[in-house]
Write a structure and sequence with these properties.
This protein is of the alpha+beta class and 208 residues long. The chain has helices at 2-6, 19-39, 89-95, 100-104, 111-127, 165-174; strands at residues 42-49, 52-60, 63-67, 132-136, 139-146, 152-157, 179-183, 190-191, 194-198. The chain contains six helices and nine strands, in the order ααβββαααβββαβββ. Strand 6 (152-157), helix 6 (165-174) and strand 7 form a beta-alpha-beta unit. 16% of the residues are buried.
Length: 208
């Protein structure tokens, strides 16, 4: 089986792991299936399970290998739904005629939006562009980050440290292995799948 998996080592560029998959996902799914089928193992495609459909299951000797792809984020977007941010947090504060002291005030109405705009600029400059979010009904997650292993990590931005209902809804629906909240508080311990990071560490999402 390891030798069979080695056939595909050169399909993805390590620096841009999702570009090829996003453009030719269906084609390479058929390539995987045909190669495994021709090699002799029993192959089941789109097999139904109690948790939904599985992309592919391969039975080899006494082992069963399960294959499930995580769709690249561009394939999941709706172009009619978007959010607007300004490219520079300082210019945004100037346009709002916002004194720095007021921005720091805990009861300032737009403090959360300023935090979100800051994270957006950090993501674009240091993590990747474009950025993606999630919304369903009244629930909304500011950012979704696709990690190097394909895992989709929800990133919730808050002006103060607290678990938002939207993040709880996302976790209940999609059961992510990890989630990050970005707040003005110091880095905290893990609460279930959620870890709190300070806002200025948004740039380190690229290391996930």
């Amino acid at each position: 089986m390891q030798r069979a998996l080695g056939w595909f080592d050169d399909l993805w560029d390590e620096a841009e792991p999702f570009d090829l998959a996003s453009d030719f996902e269906g084609y390479y799914a058929s390539v995987f299936c045909s190669h495994f089928a021709s090699a002799g193992p029993d192959v089941a495609v789109e097999d139904a399970t109690g948790a939904g459909r599985l992309d592919m299951a391969v039975r080899h000797a006494e082992s069963v290998h399960l294959f499930e792809s995580t769709p690249p984020l561009p394939h999941l977007t709706k172009e009619s739904r978007f959010r607007l941010f300004l490219f520079d947090i300082g210019i945004l504060r100037h346009l709002l005629r916002l004194p720095y002291a007021l921005q720091r005030a805990p009861n300032y109405a737009y403090r959360g939006f300023m935090a979100e705009n800051f994270v957006q600029t950090e993501m674009c400059a240091r993590v990747g562009y474009p950025t993606y979010g999630w919304a369903e009904g009244r629930a909304e997650i500011e950012f979704l980050h696709q990690a190097r292993n394909g895992e989709i990590v929800p990133v919730e931005v808050k002006s103060r440290r607290r678990r938002a209902r939207s993040l709880s809804s996302y976790i209940a629906r999609y059961a992510p292995e990890r989630a990050v909240t970005l707040t003005v508080e110091p880095r905290g311990g893990r609460d279930g799948v959620v870890t709190n990071w300070p806002l200025y560490e948004a740039q380190f999402l690229r290391e996930l």
